Amino acid sequence: MPTPLSPEEIDRLARKRAGAKLGWYSHAAIYLLVNLFLFAISEYGFGHRRWSVFPLLGWGVGLAFHGISVFVLGTGSGLRESMVRKERERLQRERGDQ
């Protein structure tokens, strides 16, 4: 069973999680604005091919990984906490066996 967090630790963790989520939302907004601009240039500006799909896809992969790290694997996520708990229990068993 995990040890209860102090109010200071809860506040620190909440601020860290909120900051990570705000960072992703900022990243997503900039991604959208820049890619809309690139699409407009691609469609109505230079060249006859739609080249804007390449930065859209490349940056989109990075944005997806950023989202996974924040919302799935981030500090306090269910998956991460479960893995930490299992490792803690395994280490405590190994320590108790010696």
UniProtKB/TrEMBL annotation:
The residues that cross the membrane are: 22-41, 53-79
Q: What keyword terms does UniProt attach to this protein?
A: Membrane, Transmembrane, Transmembrane helix
Give any Pfam family that matches.
2TM
Domain 2TM, chain residue ranges per copy: 14-73
Q: What's the name of the protein?
A: 2TM domain-containing protein
Q: What is the lineage of its organism?
A: Bacteria, Pseudomonadati, Pseudomonadota, Betaproteobacteria, Burkholderiales
